[in-house]
Design a protein that fits this description.
mainly beta; 10-stranded mixed beta sheet; 8 helices; elongated
Amino acid sequence: MTVYQFKLSTTAVANQVELIRVRQDDDESQIFRATIFEDGKVKNLSGVSAEFNMVDAQHHIVVDAARIVDATNGIVEYQLRKEAMLSVGRCNAYFSFKSNKEAVYSTKDFNYNIIWSALSSPMHQGCDYVWTASDLIDSLKDWIEHAMGDFDDWFESVKEILASIDPGGVILNELLASRKSEPFGIEHKTLQARVNFTDAVLKPLDDAEHSLDIEKFEPMFVGNLATFRNAVLQAFNIDSATSQYYASQSNSQTPEGFVISHISPNGSKLLSKMEVQNGGHGTNFGIERESDRVYIWTIIRTNTGIQKLIRVPYKENSVLTYDSSLKDYTPETLNNIYFTPVVDMVNGYMLIRRGDGLCELRDLSDIKSGVDKVLYKTQIPKNENNDERPMQGAVSHNTTLYWYSGWSTNAIRVLKYDMKTGKLLATRDFDLPNETGSNFTDNYREPEGLAYYVNPFTGKESLLMGITSGGMQKRYNMIYAIHQRGAQEHFDSIRAISAQNYAITRGDGRAHSTPDGLKKLSDLRNPGEYYLTTTIVDSLSDIPSPQFSGSGMFVKNMAGEQHYNLRQIITRFSYSRKNFTMERSLNLDGSFGSWTVHNSQSNVVEYLAPEKYKNMLTNVGIAGEYYITTPSSTAFMDHPEKGVAGWWLKVSSGDLSGSFVQKLTRNSNDYIRSYQRIVSGASSGVWVKFQDAKTQTYVDIPLSGEAKSGDLRVANNGNQIIIRGKVDAPAEESVYATLPKGFRPNYAWETTVSVAGTTGVRKIAIRTDGTIYFSGIIANNVDKVTLLNMNLVVPIN
């Protein structure tokens, strides 16, 4: 009897059963013996009956009774009958279980292959008797040994048999022709040589297709991990049911715990987080899916420092602290030994990675049941588990162990062990591809985390390696992998789901060029970033401001809304002038909204060139602040004060009718003057001088007659004449002072000033020729008036 033993699950996405080949006609001698699991635990088969169900390559269906040989340990077997071996080819099969003649559950499918037997070959179909090659050889030997004739005589005696086997020699000719290998131009001496040659060609192809050779296969970039913390990665797992990541990082607290980041399948989106306080560094942890829930296997320490192995459901955005109600799954032999767990969900194992480098493989169901049983052990040498080369990840798949070690300053290394024998199978130092082709960001890369993934749909396998790059406070976590052929496609497909498939820029990071023949900015409607040369800018008919002419321009068409309407932003590109930016709304049909100016401040002024505005300030209607040089002020025909100085021009936003305010301010160190007007379309109001001032320099005021000064002085600020000081003037009405030229009003001014010595005032008049006329006194006691308090502000206009 040949017994094929394997594991089947009623809940896993797919079963991992090695290739089974059964020769046709070997019925009643082939036994399938399966151990049934549910949610990673052995399924108790008590109280049910079992059936074997299969569909062969010709779509024949067989349902036959199977035998439960050990209900408690979930073992069922089926002895293949002839009906289950009718057709050569691949068969899909599964076990189902009934209670009271009703199906209650079944396993996921597994496959086996039926291959030809000599007697089932179509070569002899329809013959009454089958001669084997040995029959014919024995017949020839008999003729020779008994001297019954030569070969011709023998051939004559069996030619009818040969003719019945191969009428016309067709099969013989086919066999002879099969020794030729046309693609390689080789004719082999024997058919066996041809078969050996073909096997030698196919063997490396089969290895490349189905093996996971860590020493030869190229490491591939899988994606980034959007972990919660800006810190190095510690460990990660993939939930095969959802392709989502669970990644750990230290929480940098005392006592130390770690944070688990729950991340989208493409690695780019943080979905949630869970903190495990006092859970250690997070160097290893395991996940286990049970129906629609994910459980975390990890260690945690009690308030007194005792380590416990726990299994808890992952809870989004929660904090886990030790509680005495948490069940401790620690095997007795691991008490007082530091270790971390890793779960092999596909094969139902738990890897225990001890601090001393000893790795133990245990059955996950034993851990749950409290059975302290080690299946296999492998000791990692100290030179791969020390301060210079620390452990950075450990994972197992079936009975194969992968060990990850290294530091930011030495080699990234993976060791592969057979845990059944403890034999080292392979060693690989990895030089991983990176952003520049020579160094990672900030010349920093540290190996962090190892995971094994089996695609539940294709069965393709991947060994995934975590890498942290970037300096302090700039950490960046990435995933690389060694794949079986075709396994990378799964990750590429997932990453493409949320990838930016629309090219905002060119692939080399430069802006798109505009299509030839572009006449208007409003015709450039596709989202993206574009660069327009000076020649193109000057050729466009809808440039909003002459300030853009003579320079290149960046155009940024923002992502559109649901109807593809978007924001169009244009920015002048110049090294000698400041950035000048405007934007508007642009519709898919080419219609657009009003231009808006982005307010910007710079040490470089925005110069106005008169010729770009037809020498009229009226044509400067784009809101903003500009500068007009002295020569340019002369060129502007509607400038109120040409050729005397430079001027700032400030243009306000417009009202609903398009009217706006223009304000001119003179540029002078000792003289400031401002004009303002309103511009409405092609017409404009008159310039109004509303502010005129210069530096207040005081000079003495000459007195006349019998007046005496008490420091009487005057200043001109451009708008006003300011008189300060005291004067002793006789009571008679007369001119007692004259203002110097440059300090005189354009209109006569009358006012009063207060008197000293008593309460009262005295009237004065300031005339356009600068004379100050002192007239009558109104006081309580005129004889006691001593001085006049000259504190006056007189408008020039």
